[in-house]
Amino acid sequence: MFDRVLITGGAGFIGSHLAENSLKQGREVVVIDNLSRTEYNIDYLKKNYKKIRFIKGDISNPRIFDNLMNDVDLVYHCAAQVAVTTSLQNPRLDYETNADGTFNLCEALRKSKSNAPIIFCSTNKVYGDLTLPVIEKKQRYEYRDITGIDESYPLETNCPYGGSKIVAEFILDTYFHSFGIPVVKPRMSCIYGTRQFGNEDQGWVAWFTIATLLDKKITIYGDGKQVRDVLYITDQNAAFELLAKKINKTKGKAYNLGGGPENTISLFELLDTIEELTGKRAEYTKADWRMGDQKVYISDISKIRKEVGWKPKVSAKEGVKKIVEWTNQNRKLFK
To answer: CA 234, 80, 82, 171 torsion: positive or negative?
Structure first.
């Protein structure tokens, strides 16, 4: 069905896993990435798969899409500035990448002969602060009145990252309604997995795990009871595949995508899980809450479950165990 796939940001954590998933199915994959984070993932893909073409460049430059779109059957749009902290320091980067880059992609597709679906990596940050009543417990916060956030919550921005993603969603909506380009907007919670080089600003599940194994100190911003629903990367790949294959049902829609109420974990609970798996507990210091940090975010995933038949398969503990094993096998990458 999809013989040729274009992946923006395909050298990043999520993009490279989507690329590998497509390559394993025998598809041709074109990756665009500016390699601002790491070169490891693209080197890994080129070493292990033949049907991959890599283009180094930035999607904020519209010429990057020249002569690419006519033969594309599917687009995974992953390229983005992804850290809230970075967005507060350099808002221009967010809007040039997340908003302008999305416009450039849509325009290139509009002018092409292709009608490829765009599956866009959106974010739960499009819901803003979500100042809902919460209950404080010993190791975590919980919602008082609900189990998760559904897609009916109004869009609201509390940082340039969230704002630029909202703009990108509106651009995609415009091209869907005006030009018929099929778009899907998974609003993603915390995706984690192997080959994720996390840090204090982004990719916290991987960062806590890697830092513990390598005896690095961790900073906990806030009180450590913040809760997220976490989703392992193979489950996210499966969701994207279904959203694309069922495009006649999913086009034009947003779907909250995360581990859901059954796969929630707080910062402190993650440290406990890592200690249980490794026998080690990371040293940490505390710092003030950061702007834009929600005490609780849990995705209500009933819509995507009902409409495409998807649900997570990897539990939080199983996923962390996979990162532990991968890190131990690849310690040389972190020296």
So the answer is: negative
Number of domains composing the chain: 1
- Distance between CA atoms of residues 198 and 191, nearest Å: 11
Question: Is 161 annotated in the active site?
Answer: yes
In this predicted structure, the answer to whether residue 232 has a pLDDT above a threshold of 90 is yes
Tens-digit pLDDT profile for residues 78-119: 998 877 778 888 889 999 999 999 999 999 999 999 999 999
> What number of H helices and E strands is found in the chain?
12, 16
What is the mean predicted confidence (pLDDT) over 193-221?
Answer: 90
Query: Tokens at residue 148, please?
Result: 């998760």
Q: In terms of residue numbers, what domain contains 56?
A: 4-334
Distance CA 269, CA 287 (A): 18
Catalytic residue among 76, 161, 175, 255: 161
C-alpha dihedral, 80 to 83 to 86 to 90, nearest 10°: 30
Cα–Cα distance between 163 and 228 in angstroms, integer?
Answer: 20
Phi and psi at residue 174, in whole multiples of 5°?
A: -60, -45
Which tokens belong to 7? 């992946």
Domain containing residue 160: CATH number:
3.40.50.720
Per-residue pLDDT of 265-303, as tens digits, reads: 999 999 999 999 999 999 999 999 887 788 999 999 999
